Amino acid sequence: MAINDLYSDGITKGWKVRDASALQRGETLEADVVIVGSGAGGGTAAELLASAGLKVLMIEEGALHTSQDFKAMDEFRSYGTLYQEAAGRATSDGAIPILQGRAVGGSTVVNWTTSIRTPDATLSYWSEQFGVRDAMPEDMAPWFAKMEARLGIAPWAAAPNANNAVLRDGCEKLELHWKTVPRNVRGCWNLGYCGLGCPVNAKQSMLVTTIPAALDHGMTLLHRARVERLRFADGHVTGMVVAALDAGSGHPSGVTLDVRARHYILAAGAINTPALLLRSKAPDPQHRIGQRSCIHPVNVSLAQFDKAIDGYYGAPQSIYSDHFLWPADGSIGYKLEVPPLQPMLASSVMGNFGDALAADMAQLPHAQVLIALMRDGFHEQSQGGRIRIDAHGQPVFDYDVHDALWDALRRAYLSMAEIQFAAGARVVRPMHLDAQTYSSWKDAKAGIAALPMKKQRAGLVTAHLMGGCAMGEDRERCVVDSHGRFHAADNLSIFDGSIFPSSIGANPQLSIYAFTARNTQRLLARLQPAAAA
Amino acid sequence: MPADTATLDRRGFLKLSAGGATTLALLGAGVQLSGCSQRSAAVANGYRWLTASDIHFMRALVAGVAGNALPADPTAAGAIVDEGVRRADIELAALGAPAQQEVRKLLDLLQWTPFRRFAGGVTRPWAEAGAADAQTLLKHLHDSHLSLLSGAYRALAKIGSTVLWSQTPMNAFSHYPGPPAWAISALEA
């Protein structure tokens, strides 16, 4: 059963898709709106703006890869082509590896499809602490509903795979909260390879939904093109310098484009958007760009079961638990989820080597893994990290882990081990260089209590980047207003995860979709008052 | 740099390392002064980023991370190690410039005899070293609680495991059946 390649069909019928690596000479491009980035924010804005009749240009640093390229379901190929720095991105000290997409469609091409609304408590916190307007739960509900309908988001109706069932069963045994994950899929084959690009176009990523719709409405997509800088003058963006990238090396090919538009939207993600603004010397009187760059620091617990788990097959995330997300005492909480377990990813989180790693890998079909996502940016110690640029303008992400986060990470190791044992695990090992393999909850509890909670010893990872250009009305603390408009330039908006003033406490994609849809409508009313009336 | 001519002894090294991560820059400076830096060394023929010296080390690293998971047949094992080194080259070439600079410092340090010997416990140069030497290095780095060395361990273990366990021939050992055959054939139909 061949899967239609939307892009070869679309290009045949006239879609304007241009590969900047093929350009031989520079040129000037003009549009009503230029969008930098093609992920959750860029894709959502593109469809709404192009379908309203505006001339839209979308610029993406990554390449165009489509379902045809994903058929092999090959980890090395996909991590190498679809992720930032070939999945080797990390915080500046290397202590926290970062999985973030880099392709047409951005991280939506490679995420694990979990689509959860921004928690009410998070929306309230942003409103109270940052003066974010019109974004309380009742304000946002219609935007979540709109994007859920657009992207086929619904609780997963099939049975969870065994890897996720462990989370459900352990929570049931211990009488903890658990829920079924809503996923953005239509006609899902339940394969389990969402992180490598969906080979059947079932995942409703931007690649197969909003970007094709925008192309149908005449948008131009320019990929393999990196925005080097924006030009600012008198509180206004006057243009953009864009470097075409060489297809082989990914480095600038030497061809440069000049881009001009009435309005500019940055949607390059919470690392690259602040870095682009810093590189462009954007007006920033309070030095807020790149500050409060939050993540969900994630720690990991590996269990072995006697029964087969086969964690590489089936929807990668279908069960989650928020039981520990909002502790009553105000300490940092965490969300519990499950990752897919194909061998390359699994081997990288196991953290050992030689015969010990080989012994773990020989048990891969019996391996089960839980992950805990810390809710960063809510606690007084929790101010996130900082995006800065090096001497060449490249992004660098400094992120420290403070005591309140270490406390939460230790509690999370405990919760995960207890749940795994309750669900029948034979042994459990927290992913920490000083942890042992524990054969009972009692031993695990004692062992985890004694673990030194230090960077590099505790294995951390993240896939969720939020903040760096916080939204809110307080110009002393915020980079954009409550609708994503840059405080210090009237024709610039930011529509991506960088606008969130803290982490979300849920996987970010639906939050980005909903805020972008809301903010794009506001922008349309400004750009096209007649059409919006 | 001729082998073992640097004067930094174990005691001096440990004293230097006590500063933690900030010592990477100091040690990097030591490497520069000793003339061992590969920063300007040519990329090896057929590779994107690794130098000839790096490749000696990477071969030992991949074999060391593999442990007893490599096939007994030396030809098959050698092919997996070679492919692992090729994959490491692709991974490292794709890193952003700031991360590449950090990896370069680390790989240069590993070529620097005092570091290899006193921090890594490896007496032979990497051109003569094998899996057991890489395992000695990894164990030293793993067991150190200096964040510099723990960080080096994390980086090397990740490179070694991802370039190895992403290879199809390793599936026989991990019992990973590969992507569902029914789906592959349906997609090819």
TrEMBL record, chain A:
Residues 385-515 form the Glucose-methanol-choline oxidoreductase C-terminal domain. Residues 81-298 form the Glucose-methanol-choline oxidoreductase N-terminal domain. Pfam families: GMC_oxred_C (PF05199), GMC_oxred_N (PF00732). InterPro entries: FAD/NAD-bd_sf, GMC_OxRdtase_N, GMC_OxRtase_C. The keyword Transport does not apply. Keywords: FAD, Flavoprotein, Oxidoreductase. The keyword Oxidoreductase applies. This is FAD-binding protein. Belongs to the GMC oxidoreductase family. One of its GO terms (molecular function) is oxidoreductase activity, acting on CH-OH group of donors.
Automatic annotation (TrEMBL), chain B:
It comes from the Bacteria. InterPro entries: TAT_signal (IPR006311). This is Uncharacterized protein.
